Amino acid sequence: MTVSLTDAKSAELFARASRVLPGGVNSPVRAMRSIGRDPLFVERAEGVDLIDVDGNRFVDWVCSWGPLIHGHAHPQILTAIHEAAAAGTTFGAPTALEVELAEEVVRRVPSVEMLRMTSSGTEASMSAIRLARAATGREVVVKFAGAYHGHVDGLLADAGSGLATQGIPASAGVLESATRATVVVPWNDVAAVEEAFARHDVAALIAEPYPANMGLVLPEPGFLARLRELTEAHGALLIFDEVISGFRVAPGGAQELSDVTPDLTVMGKVIGGGLPAAAFGGSQALMERLAPVGDVYQAGTLSGNPLAVAAGLASLRMLDETAYLRLSETTEALATGLREAAGDRPVQVASVGGLVTVFFSEQPVRDYADARRCDHEAYARWCRGLLARGVYAPPSGYEAWFVSLAHAPEHVARTLEAAAAAFEVAW
Ligand code: PMP
């Protein structure tokens, strides 16, 4: 059964928005252009029920792209925010709660002895790169094609043709000089990484250990360990961008699961409990290169904001062993169910605790080139089919579905029913 969406109020808001906000949105993927429709404007959400301004109700698998591991408007997080707000929203001076949050992160994340907070993942990865360049006295940064580390100039680099290529700007306005020191290599390609290290004096290699910005494309066995060996052998730093995987796939992120310890870790999303917060961290020796102790300048008016810290702390404290078990069970039920619903159609479902991607592909996806070859038109039709059946999935085949602790078996069941019906209209 197809339910047609009523979206008159969203359409009206979108028309107004488009006059004052470029593309009608404050961040591109929200525009839903990649599934060929206009965005739905959200009125409110609770748990995983997302309600738009026209009163349509969806099971939300986007969950604000990752921060909401406990779902929307979790009472304990709301209470923490209310209490913090009543005591003042920002001071530009240290508070006890930010120490508690830092201690909580240090306890969980194997590589992190010290951290510095920022307001976005972009700032955190930009600062981690600056610190790595200062610590090594080198310039070149190696990144993977299809990985996203925020809209930092030097990291908005596309690969040219060939194995390990000097980056070319991936956006207008990014100087060639900004990406000249970026080398882009294909994910899961050991030879390409070796070539990059043979050819360049590398300051740092930055990787999403479980990449989720080309869809979820897990590392092949031994790949992360090889990255660790190569960086170590060449005196370069290994940076794990765990903005998505951090506090999600395990208490200590992908580095805990894979047993590969990076020099620096970039964190975001879950750490802010749904408010703007991110961080980067590493050993004391590295982190004390930062001002005011060291010579690497890094700052932020709202860094360690009391509301964000309170929300993040409340969020992390609820993430105990049982929570991770439950998150994995829900993820597994969703992934297995989607595979079954797809039957013998050309669909690959990738998953790890808290993350799922549905690739419209005959073959498993192992790098960005594979992800680009997927049938994104069919994904778009399927995704619109899901929306029409009350399921709000990422409006792009290059994104992960974010599973939360508020997703109950009934939400999975409703989603699978919609998914099966939408598969019928996807091709
Ligand atoms: N790194 C990764 C892995 C991300 O997924 C993102 C955002 N989706 C960022 C960095 C940038 O974070 P922000 O949007 O908070 O700047």
UniProtKB/TrEMBL annotation:
Its EC number is 5.4.3.8. Its cofactor is pyridoxal 5'-phosphate. Pathway: Porphyrin-containing compound metabolism; protoporphyrin-IX biosynthesis; 5-aminolevulinate from L-glutamyl-tRNA(Glu): step 2/2. Pfam families: Aminotran_3. Gene3D superfamilies: Aspartate Aminotransferase, domain 1, Type I PLP-dependent aspartate aminotransferase-like (Major domain). Keywords: Aminotransferase, Cytoplasm, Isomerase, Porphyrin biosynthesis, Pyridoxal phosphate, Transferase. It catalyses: (S)-4-amino-5-oxopentanoate = 5-aminolevulinate. GO terms for cellular component: cytoplasm. Homodimer. HAMAP family: HemL_aminotrans_3. This is Glutamate-1-semialdehyde 2,1-aminomutase. It comes from Patulibacter medicamentivorans. The gene is hemL.
